Amino acid sequence: MTVKEIIREEIDRLSEDILIEVLDFIRFLEIKRERDMLVKGSQMLSEASFQKIWDNEEDSVYDSL
Asked: Cα separation of 21 and 29, whole Å?
């Protein structure tokens, strides 16, 4: 039995008020995943810009700290 099938069986046993909480939690997880993807994407996009700042001779003394 797959995880999805097990979850469906469990959902069938829940009352309506608990199902509302489950739906709220699912939406929370979706928003969290989207936020994490946006953060990671923005970090990757800005990495090239910061590379010029991080890798320069003037500040190489700070690389050993």
From this structure: 12
pLDDT score recorded for residue 51: 78
Quickly tell me which residue has 């959902």 as its tokens: 11
- Predicted confidence at residue 54, as pLDDT, reads 73
Q: Which residues contact 7 (CB under 8 A, 6 or more apart)?
A: none
CB-count exposure of residue 40 (10 Å: 0-12, 13-18, 19+) = exposed
Tokens 């979850």 belong to which residue? 7
> 20-52, pLDDT tens digit by residue?
999 999 999 999 999 999 999 999 888 888 877
Q: CA–CA separation, 58 vs 39, rounded Å?
A: 30
Which token pair is 62? 């700070």
